[in-house]
Amino acid sequence: MLYSSHDAEQAHLFATAQAMCAAARTAPKTKGQDYLETCIVTGDDLEPLAAKMEELSDAHNAAFLRRDAGNIRSSGAVVLLGAKNVPHGINGLCQYCGFPDCAAAAAAGAACVYTSMDLGIAVGSASAIAADNRVDGRVMFSAGRAALALGLLPDCSMAIAIPLSVSGKSPYFDRK
Question: Percentage of the chain with pLDDT > 70?
């Protein structure tokens, strides 16, 4: 059987995306509490994500969102990593969120700093998998924000996207 380079590269890209989700899941988390969600966006589902980024670009006068939308369109897949905002119960000892305890933070709708840290660690673990597999990627707040607006990670309060590409030149660098 003969496999074209395109087919082999796309299969590798998707397998890498799956491994990135696994790496994010197994990344260390505060108090061993796992509030992470992951998913992979491919094919025709990339366009609504890019379109939402352009919509947000116009609504918030943020040109980088439009630029990043072009990157999403040139990607073979996008790994989404999101986190549910659940206070981690460290209470008065912490106060990193700016509130005296977790109950006050929750009442104000504040983001638990440990949720952000756990998401960041997961992003690092997932990104390492992409690099180890020689798949080009870039960590993007912009596409994560659009994914939240589309409801792709319905229980999450924060998200980061990692678009992926296998091509002769990475579309994520030398951007204008």
Answer: 99
**What backbone torsions phi and psi does residue 133 show, to the nearest 5 degrees?**
-100, 10
pLDDT in tens, 87-134: 888 888 999 999 999 999 999 999 999 999 999 999 999 999 999 999
Average pLDDT over the chain reads 95
Residues 46-71: b if buried by 16+ CB within 10 A, e if exposed? beebbebbbebbeeeeeeebbebbeb
Q: Residue 88: what are its φ and ψ, rounded to 5°?
A: -90, 0
Q: Which of 20, 77, 72, 12 is nearest to 47 (CA)?
A: 72
Contact, 35 vs 84, CB < 8 A? yes
CATH number of 20-165: 3.40.109.10
